[in-house]
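Incident log, support desk, overnight shift.

02:14 A customer reports that sequence design results differ from what the structure should imply. Their input is reproduced verbatim below. On-call engineer (initials T.W.) acknowledged and began investigating.
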């Protein structure tokens, strides 16, 4: 029997908003995400590893930035 296991990132949407994306250079909508590494077995997440991180994913370019970029809305 072959076991498929490893780690994968899972993203969970926390919020949405608008910020000035450093790459796009203009205001863009973003997804505020919780990003966490999970141990997976046959691609099914089993155990979370480490602490969750927060990121902002720009809708324009798709880059994920540290959550501190949003600033007060
Ligand atoms: Zn962007």
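02:41 Re-run completed on a clean worker. Output:
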């Amino acid at each position: 029997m072959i076991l498929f296991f490893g780690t994968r990132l899972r993203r969970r949407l926390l919020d949405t908003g608008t910020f000035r994306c450093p790459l796009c250079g203009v205001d863009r909508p973003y997804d505020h995400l919780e990003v966490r590494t999970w141990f997976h077995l046959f691609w099914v997440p089993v155990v979370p590893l480490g602490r969750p991180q927060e990121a902002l994913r720009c809708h324009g370019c798709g880059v994920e930035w540290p959550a501190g970029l949003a600033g007060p809305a």
